[in-house]
């Protein structure tokens, strides 16, 4: 599945949750409102067309100079479909919390510590 098809599928299913997307060097990034991260993550894993069954990395980013904004970044991979996507959720520094995705990918338990 190509990047355009992936982002269209996600946007069509969650139009209120997606604030943007970009493709840079053939790598897709989808910007997700933090309130929707577990719902989107579950969809990305369970949807048979997407099948993002592997959370390869999860990290926090301090966007210095962006008026107190952090990001939580999720790198997803489909072993069976051989495609990747990056989810980014911006988080305000005055409320640096986001829901866990451990119930979706067990490996998140390590990354979220």
Secondary-structure map:
Elements: H1 3-13, E1 18-24, E2 27-32, H2 37-46, E3 54-63, E4 69-78, E5 83-92, H3 108-111
Parallel strand pairs: 2-5
Antiparallel strand pairs: 1-2, 3-4, 4-5
Strand order of the largest sheet: 1-2-5-4-3
Average pLDDT over all residues: 95
CATH level-4 homologous superfamily: NADH:ubiquinone oxidoreductase Nqo5 subunit
Q: What count of structural domains?
A: 1
In angstroms, what separates the terminal alpha carbons? 32 Å
Radius of gyration: 13 Å
Work out the number of β strands: 5
At CATH's second level, what is the architecture?
2-Layer Sandwich
Q: What name is given to the CATH topology?
A: Beta Polymerase, domain 2
Low-confidence stretches: none
- The helix/strand class is alpha+beta
H-E order: HEEHEEEH
Descriptive notes:
This protein is of the alpha+beta class. Helices cover 22% and strands 38% of the residues. The chain has one domain: NADH:ubiquinone oxidoreductase Nqo5 subunit (Beta Polymerase, domain 2), CATH 3.30.460. It contains 3 helices and 5 strands, in the order H-E-E-H-E-E-E-H. The chain starts with a helix and ends with a helix. The mean pLDDT is 95.
